[in-house]
Amino acid sequence: MASEDPNPDSDSDPHQAPTLALKQALCFSCWDVSSNLNRCSACKRVSYCSAKCQKQDWNRNHKKICKKLVALNKQKGYVPSAGRQWNDYYDEQELDLGSGNRNPSELRIFVGYVHSPVTDENRSPTSLGTITIYEPYCYHCYRRESQLEDGAKLNACQYCLLTSFCPSCQQTHPSAECSTLQDIAADDKIIVDLRRRTGKSSTFSPTKFPRKQHFLLSSAKDWYDYYTRLSDMGGFRSKMNRDLKYLANDPEERKLVEYMRCGTNTTTIQLTLIAALEAVIPNISTRGSINIHIIGAAGAEFNSVPAFEELLHFLPSLTALQLSFVGLNVLEDLKHDTETQNPHTLQCCTTCTKMGRTISITTWRGPYHAYVDTEFYKTPDLAAAFRSGFSVDEEEDWYPTIKYLAHAPHPTLLTAARYFEIQGEMGVWKNLGAEFVKNAEVNKWKGMSPSLTVCGDKPNEVVYRNYWWYIVKQR
Ligand SMILES: [Zn+2]
Ligand SMILES: [Zn+2]
Ligand SMILES: [Zn+2]
Ligand SMILES: [Zn+2]
Ligand SMILES: [Zn+2]
């Protein structure tokens, strides 16, 4: 079943279908918005804008899973709407996925929004599990369409498109929640658009020119402050609010602001790193070189590589930034030789290049505690593990590394999306006798674009990237 399991960390798969497509609000093949979508008449789980698109997806992937989806539609138990609870819907999903050997927490951290579709050729086939887990259901009675009486249909919320209602229930959901889901829909459209125009898988709005003067990031209150005061988007000061919502009427500007908000999901990595460096290096404003290790690096970290130049632009004295990506998911095809550890040099802007400033990257595939024993290891100023989830997922893989980090010769930054992960992590650190430079708290530099959690504690629960952060002290 491994190949049919939903990826528990879909954010790290750059080739997955957008949430809107999984919720049948976009053509499942070309991801176009169309008012005229037709569903696969057999399974009714995916929609297409044209016969051509349907055929394309059939050949690419759908023929392998359609029959199984039809079988799932038939097999479903029926709990009458009056007595139905969120848990009934939730438990049925686990049943569908054959979760006998599955850790339920894996499902709980499975988040929906995927940042990085790439090209038609390298799109991941959407698994049976992913389609099942995103199946629309009535927001109020938690029934799926195959559980409604007399072939009744679900209606999607006309504003967010990501919530559905059956004909017997109220046709609304709370407006604040709808507004958050509209952000997810807007981000999906941005990413589809970006992929079409550039083939790129993520976006960010960098500071264009290196700063001449150093400002502490901790002096900024939030992303709005960062963009309008510390970066170079000052022109937008009166045109967006602190949640990076556009307030004026120009469609082009609106798009730019939406890109800015969406970009925070990439740059959350770099800004959280800068904030951590400020917390652990007292003379950060005069440092010429910094060495950072990214532990457990995967899709999100690699997608954000170009945004590391933000560290050069933000720290005027920094001339050499060394990055090492280490982890079990580290790609082997990054353009350099992993055997000799000849670093790959990131192409920087003309100004940085002229000044001789450099960002060098090495990668090493394997667990971090093994990396420290290699000849390539050099004690970093800071190590970081973004959304490791070590207390809920792959605990055995992580434990020796965590044990090492509890008393390592450097501080380590860690982040998590959800509070229960933080609780679990604190328990582990406590047992290991670790101390903290910074205790767990809400991260000012969390991603501002939400992701839909499909198996949360309630419908339409969302999470934000790197929402929590803390720093473990060096020994
Ligand atoms: Zn289409
Ligand atoms: Zn089908
Ligand atoms: Zn209903
Ligand atoms: Zn809505
Ligand atoms: Zn530059």
What characteristics describe this protein?
14 strands, eight-stranded mixed β-sheet, 475 residues, two-stranded antiparallel sheet, alpha/beta, binds zinc ion
Q: What would you say this structure looks like, in words?
A:
- This protein is of the alpha/beta class and 475 residues long.
- It is 33% helix and 13% strand.
- The protein contains 14 helices and 14 strands.
- Strands 7-8-6-5-9-10-14-11 form an eight-stranded mixed sheet. Strands 1-2 form a two-stranded antiparallel sheet.
- Helix 13 links the parallel strand 9 and strand 10 (412-416).
- The protein is globular and about 70 Å long.
- The two termini are 43 Å apart.
- The model is unreliable at 1-12 and 99-119 (pLDDT under 50).
- The structure holds zinc ion (5 copies).
- The site of one zinc ion (ZN) has 6 residues, from helix 2.
- One zinc ion is lined by residues 157, 159-160, 163, 173, 178, 181.
- This is MYND-type domain-containing protein.
- One of its GO terms (molecular function) is zinc ion binding.
